[in-house]
Amino acid sequence: xxxxxxxxxxxxxxxxxxxxxxxxxxxxxxxxxxxxxxxxxxxxxxxxxxxxxxxxxxxxxxxxxxxxxxxxxxxxxxxxxxxxxxxxxxxxxxxxxxxxxxxxxxxxxxxxxxxxxxxxxxxxxxxxxxxxxxxxxxxxxxxxxxxxxxxxxxxxxxxxxxxxxxxxxxxxxxxxxxxxxxxxxxxxxxxxxxxxxxxxxxxxxxxxxxxxxxxxx
Length: 217
Known about the structure:
Structural class: mainly beta
Low-confidence stretches: 1-11
Radius of gyration: 22 Å
Order of helices and strands: HEEEEEEEEEEEEEEH
Largest sheet: 7 strands, mixed
Helix content: 10-25%
Number of strands: 14
Oligomer: single chain
Number of domains: 1
């Protein structure tokens, strides 16, 4: 029973496998340019980290990230070689390496904006391809896990030292980088009750069992 309860809390997992950032209109429709985490595509490489080293370094398909998400808040930093955006869409895909898959989460935001991002509607673009795909909202259900985008910020800081290049993080470009972050809140919809609630429920079940036994005696 104890192992079963632990599994309910920790046996379900989700991971971020793909991210795609491009200039768009206010519905998430692609307009120009783009960054992705696939490597080896026409798009500029988009590098991700969670506060430490870059998690998808270099170039080529083998650098596709695999970032496990924990229950609670997950903040992921992004960095790429700079080119100007005025409005952009971020698309995210979880637990899949299918590069033509429609995004699981899509969000539109303004360049340098501190305001909340908006859900992307209409058509976007599949990761690393020119195929149009339906955009998604802020929330995605991955099995029992509910994944919600709660924050998105992208900016360019003039004068900051560049750390990555367009297609190789080991040879930084001469300009400052595009930098930003997004936050994913993960909740387990199958989570067990709080210990106090579980203890009360278990205690009532034991009492009812004893009562039935006494009634049959």
